[in-house]
């Protein structure tokens, strides 16, 4: 397909693409929600003239999805994950982030003779599950009396932030943390970090939030704000499904017949590198989608070429998740509030971006890297990684 850069044409292309999935309970969402490095596959060229608009559109598309949601969105995601065989992935990620973070804090406390104030920031704190996991772990630890912890929750949705603050204060009430933990809400996206002082933070934690930014500009900012040698502990979803319309085509092939188990299994086998899945039918809108993006049969056949076994497993995990969302909302005759396109970057891409932003992976970081659904056959779909700011 022809690359486009004019704002009018990008808008037109994105609207046309989204309209082709009106039949589906899982809406496509704007292609600007994918990672900036995938835009070209979606026909979009970033230029000096359009970058500001693209960046704002992409952020707007994410915040629209989350702004007015509450903890019921988390429940809905958790249910679909469980049904897809992914366990309660977000809860597991949060537990792991909480454990690594508490371990880091208690080690520093043990090393430090003088009283000090430890500064932690949770990016995309949501309704508080990541910070709550840290609090639960800290409650199991003997921190001693010489520490104060400042925990800043950065979250764009005021509604979710209020829930988070209540949840944390419920957890700490009547415990030793009540005296030493100061939880501070900050309404804003990860962009808020731009206004924070350099070398001012002892730890960043985050789960399932930094993939809500198409451009990785926040990673150098997180690195700048951290003290040298200290970590960003990040749980996230990692996969390459949204990198190309040819892969998304296969996702919607599944969603056109979500209850056809035989066709579903054939597609999963194909994604994992098995024989070509033979489609019984192709909705006219799917054909139009292929035409819109100039996808010929070779591109469709080779959609997953170049992905590792683990990355293919991650795509299958993601497909299973959306299939469950499709079944649930389709059976109810409703639309999923969460839309398909995301910027879940593959693990290799995230590690590369972290290294470019000044992070290193020492032995401790390597030992703290965990792929959480690998033994379920979903490769690197969910992972927790620790990366430390390079010491100058
Ligand atoms: C999947 S939830 C995860 C929340 C929490 N970390 C947890 O694990 O329960 C993602 C959160 O990221 C927030 N978010 C969306 N865009 C963001 C951005 N650009 N920067 C930071 N957070 C963002 C959403 O409002 C939402 O609360």
Order of H and E elements: HHHHEHEHHEEHEHHHHHHEHEE
Give the N-terminus to C-terminus distance in angstroms. Answer: 45 Å
Q: What count of domains describes the coordinates?
A: 2
What fold name stands as the CATH topology of the largest domain? Rossmann fold
Shape: globular
The portion of residues forming beta strands comes to 5-15%
Bound molecules: S-adenosylmethionine
Q: What is the CATH H-level superfamily of the largest domain?
A: Vaccinia Virus protein VP39
Tell me the number of helical segments per DSSP (H or I, 4 or more residues long). Answer: 15
Q: What helical percentage do the residues reach?
A: 40-55%
Based on CA atoms alone, the radius of gyration comes out at: 21 Å
Provide the low-confidence segments as ranges: none
CATH-derived architecture of the largest domain? 3-Layer(aba) Sandwich
**CATH secondary-structure class of the largest domain:** Alpha Beta
Q: The biggest beta sheet, please?
A: 8 strands, mixed
Q: How many strand segments?
A: 8
Helix-strand makeup class:
alpha/beta
**Average pLDDT, all residues:** 95
């Amino acid at each position: 397909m022809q690359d486009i850069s004019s704002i009018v044409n990008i808008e037109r292309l994105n609207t046309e693409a989204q309209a082709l999935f009106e039949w589906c309970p899982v809406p496509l969402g704007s292609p600007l929600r994918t990672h900036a490095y995938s835009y070209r596959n979606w026909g979009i060229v970033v230029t000096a003239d359009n970058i500001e608009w693209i960046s704002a559109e992409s952020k707007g598309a994410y915040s629209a999805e989350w702004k007015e949601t509450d903890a019921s969105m988390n429940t809905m995601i958790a249910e679909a994950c469980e049904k897809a065989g992914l366990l309660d992935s977000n809860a597991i990620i949060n537990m792991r982030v909480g454990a690594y973070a508490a371990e880091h804090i208690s080690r520093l406390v043990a090393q430090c003779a003088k009283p000090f104030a430890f500064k932690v920031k949770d990016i995309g704190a949501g309704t508080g599950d990541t910070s709550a996991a840290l609090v639960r772990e800290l409650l199991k630890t003997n921190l001693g009396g010489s520490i104060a912890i400042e925990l800043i929750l950065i979250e764009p949705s005021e509604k979710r932030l209020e829930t988070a603050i209540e949840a944390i204060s419920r957890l700490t009430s009547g415990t030793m943390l009540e005296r030493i933990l100061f939880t501070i809400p900050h309404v804003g996206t990860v962009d808020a970090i731009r206004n924070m002082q350099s070398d001012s933070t002892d730890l960043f934690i985050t789960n399932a939030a930094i993939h809500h930014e198409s451009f990785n500009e926040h990673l150098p900012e997180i690195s700048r704000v951290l003290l040298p040698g200290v970590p960003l502990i990040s749980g996230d979803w990692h996969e390459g499904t949204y990198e190309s319309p040819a892969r998304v085509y296969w996702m919607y092939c599944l969603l056109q017949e979500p209850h056809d188990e035989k066709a579903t299994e054939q597609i999963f086998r194909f994604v994992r590198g098995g024989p070509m899945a033979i489609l019984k039918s192709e909705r006219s809108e799917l054909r139009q989608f292929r035409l819109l993006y100039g996808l010929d049969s070779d591109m469709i056949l080779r959609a997953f070429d170049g992905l590792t076994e683990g990355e293919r497993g991650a795509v299958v995990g993601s497909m299973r998740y959306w299939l469950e969302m499709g079944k649930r909302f389709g059976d109810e005759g409703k639309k999923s509030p969460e839309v398909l396109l995301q910027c879940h970057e593959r693990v290799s891409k995230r590690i590369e971006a972290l290294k470019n932003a000044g992070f290193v992976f020492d032995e401790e970081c390597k030992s703290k890297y965990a792929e959480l659904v690998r033994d379920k056959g979903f490769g690197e779909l969910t992972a927790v990684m620790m990366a430390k700011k390079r010491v100058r």
